[in-house]
Amino acid sequence: MFGNIGLPELMIIMILALLVFGPKKLPEIGRTIGKAVREFKKSTDEIKDKFEEQIRVDEFKSLKDDLNGLKKDIREIDVTKDLTGNGEDQKIS
Question: Does the pLDDT at position 13 exceed 80?
Answer without folding.
Answer: yes
